[in-house]
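Section 5.1 Outputs to date
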Amino acid sequence: MIDGAGLTGRYVVNGFDPAGIEYSGILVVEELGDPDELFFQWLITGAMLEGTGTVSDDRIDVEWVAVNPPGTEGLITYTIGPDGTLTGIRTIDGRDGEGTEDVFPEP
């Protein structure tokens, strides 16, 4: 298992929102003081999102909010791979369906 401190850094993001629209970009993960409490900032196609997450075993639950453009928020649950990759299911509050997100440590 990788703890939160082992997850800090920059990542490449590829995903599909709940409507099936593809996006990509960069995710930066930083520690918030407790190694299992993390800050997330996504710079993805057409948006900037921020959130906080808690590491528990091999998963991270992240509550996120759109910063630009504002007004959208939701939850993403990542499964942590043994190599530090993250595989997520993203939901948007007030909308049906789920999106998917694959996150890879930047080389």
